[in-house]
Specification:
The complex is a heterodimer of chains A (785) and B (299). With 785 residues, chain A is of the alpha+beta class. Chain A is 37% helix and 18% strand. The chains are: A alpha+beta (785), B mainly alpha (299).
Chain lengths: 785, 299
């Protein structure tokens, strides 16, 4: 017996001697592996902070019609909530008394690129129809003259999932918020060492009695370790690893460091694609407040959400959230964090359900364009991980109007012309629209196609198509420029050109342009040729001006070095809608080129502006030259191929040009007022025949868009520059119009070259049958382009 | 964000002169002896800090602007200085009082006169930019002025202050571009136009284009005889002006005689200064100058 005992003892000692060291070795190896993981995570960058892309802000001022800028839709998208009280109690709320014309809005706090806006309450007095009559600071009562609605979030730039968080120091979080979280999640946080045996035993008891894993005994430190390193599987193996890591973290780091990481890390819900992480982001999203401004009840609500953020979302499930909040408040009272009075007060705080806008990627083609631009300057890791805030020029309201205009127009075309319908999605009729503000170069709207989900091909910047007649103004500019520069040839809007079949010989080749429907007008003025978009007359003009001059003008307008073929004068090249918009913006801006741009500023996480935009310009055309062309393009809209704009009710001063390619595959309309320009292209990606003119296929979308998009802008006319005079002329003779001229047109002329003599051909007795014929000939007809 | 801004308390000549002339990168010679009385005037008290929510006063007295009649604006030229050669030199200026630069005082009187709300809002933002320029915040002013133009593209004062901001940033080409653009909208406002052209002179002078600068200053003096900067520049660079043009009747006629008659197939060309068409004959002739392009197959 004694021998047996000795053998057993030796056996055990032997096992211990040989087994324990390897076990200890493996244990400590594992321990140190985990420790190095923890150290690496804590000492490195803890989170990838996605970059955010914002729209432009919206300026509200006295005299503005709020409906014209889609004000209330903007408020909804920005998560402003209407309240019943006369003065909204918190940021992100507004009250509106329509009968009394009183709107009070408590603006969000917003860190603009160059300054932080603290968020203030503004009272607007509205006149009939929603026009702002006066504004005042509701706090001080003093008058204010403008108010800026913050930019709208368009999208994020992230890798994998969009985890949106704003990093804060522990000192920035109010103690009551911390108390609420500790009460809800780990009230013995400052007492344990990463693992709380009491809590584990309690959880184990619950799990044992229920028969499966129901309750976690995790401390905050364990939760943090799980989020940092582990997955959500409920296994004992994962729990052991989590506990070891928590213990390691507590040995290496202070409680405050762990708590700060936790407060920045926790997941607190979802807004569309965007995950809400950290208490700061949650406070802003759910209550439009910084954590420092939260009431006790609101803090308890956020703290209560940690265990189940989506089920306890106070905006969607206020009843459940209220119950959980009160539970947390009870725990806070029990742990001595709040007094009974504070508890009684907090449990009565109401929680209202609210509509939340979850759509974020409002302008997908524009966002792609911005991302592409950013990718040229910043490495991917910076964009997806360093929390840049990118401010852009987009006007979300204008973008929505543009999308609607494109959709409506395409639907209408397919309904009207069944031959344009296609069964396969990818073959459907497409359209693109880009809108710019010529004086500033801001890209205000960009619709790159019919359906972004189906096709991400951005036709505004990627689709190179023939511009057709929208390119014609280049030839007319070259001609007028020759005149204004005092060249040997003089071309004026009233100069004549033959509109007859014509062959252009060049080298050993020839080119014979033909008019639309082979309809020729004979002798016409330049103004009429452009107004009716006559191919033959324009080609003759280009021939007379010289192809090199036309090419030089095209290069000046940003089309590059075009080949020396005559067909370029009728748009026999390939360009993008953005290039056309760029060139037309120069016409609209009195010859001043302001580069179109999308990114106004890029701000890093510390609020430092790392990329800005400066308003710069170059005088590419003289104002006189630009105006003479604009005047002719106004005639296109008022009387010529673009007169559908007027028939559809667009009354503002506007200039534009239709464009249809000879093969009838592309239809364009490019037009502008002095403060907004839009270019619309319509066609098939597969370059199938469309067989519609620009006036038929693209002009309607342009008009629908411009009517709504210019409603908030002043109705400016094109300013006549010095040295230019507008004269009434007889387009049949080129003389100054007399009282008996059968047709009278207006033209813009250099003062020195303006016709001064009254037409001698039309007198009281001279009106003949041929005049009637001429009158008909020069009367605006159906679009010929 | 809300915007309400308090105008500077002083719009007096002293401050105006300070804003216009004491900025470091204006030509040092701008303060010529003739300019010293006004230029040495001490700046007014320092500006009040901007306060959000502070209303503008109902009326802000503008500076004394010379009411001397000004010649009409010369025809628009992309290079305004070039047009100045056509303007006769200004008469004796000693009797013309020096006036404060109009651009140095508040735009509030203009804002009050404006009925169009968009232009009013645009002008208010321009006024904000004017103050930013006064505080040497040129980049901020350029951004602010972009917003002003976004609201109302027809606001010439925004272009003027863009020119000022770029001038202070020593980008004279940009400054000239914006001053030229401002000119288009200020044609009916000689004091402002004169000041704009005066600043164009400053740009040219900084670019060592003395002749252009001299012509711009001369034109500025024509438009706003009380403009100190223009007067100083004009006095300083008078010698750089080109000789006055020879009257047409004194020019040799041989050149004209050498000119070939217009070709038949040429698109109607008219010598500069002549009417578009010659006087109509007693019997109305067929419509003039039927053009046929080269290589045309038409008949």
């Amino acid at each position: 017996m004694k021998r047996l005992f000795k053998i057993a003892l030796f056996g055990v000692c032997g096992v211990l001697l040989f087994a324990v060291p390897p076990i200890l070795y493996f244990f400590f190896s594992y321990y140190y592996t985990l420790q190095s993981e923890v150290i690496q995570r804590f000492s490195g960058r803890h989170w990838n902070i996605p970059s955010r892309i914002y729209s432009d802000s919206t300026l509200i001022y006295a005299g503005l019609d709020l409906d014209s800028v889609g004000f209330f839709q903007r408020l909804a998208r920005l998560n402003y909530h209407r309240v019943q009280s006369a003065n909204p109690p918190g940021r992100g709320e507004y009250s509106y008394d329509r009968a009394r014309g009183r709107l009070v809005i408590f603006l969000h706090r917003f860190p603009y690129p160059y300054k932080d806006f603290p968020g203030e309450m503004v009272e607007l007095r509205l006149a009939g129809g929603g026009t702002v009559a006066a504004m005042r600071d509701a706090g001080s009562g003093k008058a204010v003259y403008s108010m800026q609605l913050e930019p709208e979030l368009l999208s994020g730039i992230f890798q994998g999932s969009w985890e949106q968080r704003r990093l804060v120091r522990l000192s920035q979080i109010p103690p009551a918020m911390i108390d609420a979280i500790l009460a809800a999640e780990d009230h013995r946080f400052y007492a344990h060492h990463g693992v709380d045996p009491v809590r584990i035993l309690k959880a184990a008891y619950v799990d044992f009695t229920s028969g499966h894993l129901r309750q976690g005994g995790s401390t905050l430190t364990q939760q943090l370790m799980k989020n940092f390193f582990l997955n959500s599987e409920r296994t004992y193996r994962r729990k052991i690893k989590e506990a070891m890591m928590a213990y390691i973290a507590e040995r290496l780091y202070t409680k405050d460091e762990i708590l700060e990481n936790y407060l920045n890390d926790i997941y607190l819900g979802q807004r569309g694609q965007e995950g809400i992480y950290g208490v700061w982001e949650a406070a802003e999203f759910y209550f439009s407040k910084d954590p420092t401004d939260l009431a006790i009840g609101e803090m308890a609500t956020i703290a209560g959400m940690i265990s189940s953020p989506n089920r306890l979302n106070p905006l969607r499930h206020p009843e459940l959230a209220r119950a959980r909040r009160n539970e947390v408040l009870g725990l806070m009272l029990q742990d001595g964090y709040i007094s009974k009075a504070a508890y009684d007060n907090a449990v009565t705080e109401p929680l209202h359900p609210r509509e939340t806008f979850t759509e974020t990627n409002d302008a997908p083609y524009f966002v792609d364009y911005v991302k592409h631009e950013l990718a040229e300057r910043y490495p991917p890791g910076v964009l997806t991980g360093e929390g840049l805030r990118v401010f852009t020029s987009l006007d979300v309201h204008a973008e929505k109007l543009a999308e609607k205009a494109v959709d409506e127009n395409l639907d209408e075309l397919e309904a009207k012309y069944p031959r344009l319908r296609r069964k396969e999605e990818k073959n459907r009729l497409e359209s693109a629209l880009v809108a710019l503000e010529p004086p500033t170069g801001k890209i205000r709207a960009m619709v790159g196609g019919r359906n972004y989900r189906r096709s991400q091909f951005n036709r505004v910047i990627q689709s190179r198509r023939q511009p057709g007649s929208v390119f014609k103004p280049v030839t007319y500019l070259a001609a007028l420029d020759e005149t204004l520069a005092g060249g040997p040839d003089r071309f004026l809007p009233t100069s004549y050109i033959e509109d007859e079949p014509f062959t252009w010989e060049y080298g050993d080749m020839s080119w014979t342009p033909r008019n639309y429907k082979d309809r020729y007008f004979g002798r016409v003025t330049l103004a009429f040729a452009l107004q009716e978009s006559l191919n033959s007359a324009t080609s003759r003009l280009a021939n007379a001006v010289g192809l090199d001059r036309v090419r030089a003008m095209a290069a000046r307008l940003g089309f590059g070095d075009l080949p020396s073929y005559p067909s370029i004068v009728l748009g026999g090249i390939e360009v993008t809608p953005m290039q056309i918009a760029h060139a037309y913006a120069i016409f609209a801006n009195e010859g001043l080129e302001v580069e179109p741009y999308a990114v106004t500023a890029v701000v890093d996480q510390n609020g430092r502006v790392i990329q800005g935009h400066e308003l710069k310009a170059a005088q590419l055309l003289t104002p006189q030259l630009a105006f003479m062309l604009d005047f002719m393009l106004e005639n296109v809209v008022n009387h010529g191929t673009g007169s559908g704009v007027r028939r559809r009710g667009f009354k503002r001063p506007a200039a534009g040009k239709t464009g249809t390619t000879n093969d009838a595959k592309d239809a364009w309309f490019a037009g502008f007022t002095p403060n907004l320009l839009a270019v619309v292209w319509t066609g098939f990606d597969q370059k199938e025949v469309l067989n519609l003119t620009g006036a038929e296929a693209s002009l309607p979308a342009w008009t629908i868009f411009m009517q709504a998009a210019t409603a908030s802008r002043p109705a400016l006319d094109f300013a006549v520059p010095p040295g230019i005079v507008i004269e009434q002329v007889d387009p049949l003779t080129g003389y100054k119009a007399g009282p008996y001229c059968p047709v009278v047109a207006e033209g813009a002329f250099p003062i020195a070259l303006a016709p001064t003599e009254i037409c001698p051909f039309h007198t009281a007795s001279s009106k003949t049958a041929s005049d009637h014929v001429a009158e008909e000939q020069f009367a605006p007809g159906e679009p010929t382009d | 964000m809300i915007c309400a801004f308090a105008p500077r308390p002083a719009s007096a000549a002293g401050q105006a002169i300070r804003l216009a002339l004491s900025e470091e990168n204006l030509p040092a010679a701008a303060l010529s002896p003739s300019a010293t009385p006004a230029a040495s005037a001490s700046p007014s008290e320092s500006p009040a800090p901007l306060a959000i929510g502070t209303p503008l006063p109902s009326a802000s007295p503008g500076p004394a602007v010379s009411s001397q009649p000004s010649p009409a604006a010369t025809p628009g030229e992309s290079q305004p200085g070039a047009a100045a050669a056509d303007v006769p030199p200004p008469a004796d200026l000693s009797s013309v009082p020096v006036s404060a630069p109009v651009s140095a005082s508040s735009l509030e009187p203009l804002i009050q006169k404006t009925a169009d709300p968009s232009l009013g809002a645009s002008l208010r933002i321009t006024e904000e930019a004017r103050q930013q320029i006064g505080e040497n915040h040129y980049d901020e002013a350029i951004r602010t002025l972009g917003r002003a133009l976004s609201i109302d593209a027809s606001n010439p004062y925004a272009y003027f202050y863009l020119g000022r901001a770029w001038l202070m940033k020593k980008d004279y080409r940009q400054a000239l571009t914006f001053f030229s653009r401002a000119e288009l909208g200020l044609g009916s406002n000689p004091p402002w136009l004169g000041e704009t052209v005066g600043f164009e002179g400053v740009c040219y002078e900084e670019m060592n284009r003395d002749q252009d600068a001299a012509m711009a200053y001369q034109r500025a003096v024509q438009l706003a005889p009380g403009n100190l900067m223009a007067r100083a520049g004009h006095g300083r660079l008078a010698s750089a002006l080109p000789p006055p043009p020879v009257p047409p009747e004194e020019q040799p006629t041989a050149e004209n005689a050498d000119q070939p008659p217009p070709e038949e197939n040429e698109i109607r060309t008219v010598p500069e200064g002549e009417p578009l068409e010659t006087a109509p004959p007693e019997e109305p002739a067929p419509p003039p100058a039927v053009p046929v392009a080269k290589g045309s197959s038409s008949n």
